[in-house]
Nucleoside diphosphate kinase
Amino acid sequence: SSNGSTEEEKTLAMIKPDGVLGNYTERIKMVIVESGFSIIRETITQLDEHRASNFYVEHSSKSFFSGLIKYMTSGPVLVMILKKENAVADWRTLIGPTDAQKAKITHPHSIRAMCGLDSEKNCVHGSDSLESAQREISFFFGEISSGDAVGEHDEL
Ligand code: RTP
Ligand code: MG
């Protein structure tokens, strides 16, 4: 950008109901900060069926969808905007694979290995692309500055 700072990305991170109820919030936040992310916004919210279905609409035809919605509405979630260079990919790497059982074997230092249970109850979410990140940030926090302005209008 024009001020010479590194281009930074924003991604959406979520601690799912099992993570919040299992008291993993502070441990996860510690890993986030130690890994170089800034938490620039955060909110706790309880998803209802409608909002959870909308959030995961890409999976609406999958066999696991009804279980996913039941899980995601089972308690409050903590949603955060994380900022860092390469935030989208780096947060996905830090959380590890979808199946927390596999994560414990193949990615033992990942967040899902630390606090996830199985292929459904995996404790955390991360946007899977820049486009998903923008959609998901808007979903929870409203519109934000577009990508080409990131770094100059980055108070959000
Ligand atoms: P997320 O979107 O939550 O960050 O997870 P992900 O990209 O690693 O995995 P995705 O394929 O997008 O699946 C979304 C969430 O659905 C639940 N799931 N359950 N029972 C199952 O086989 C199954 N498969 C997926 C998980 O909670 C997964 O994170
Ligand atoms: Mg996903």
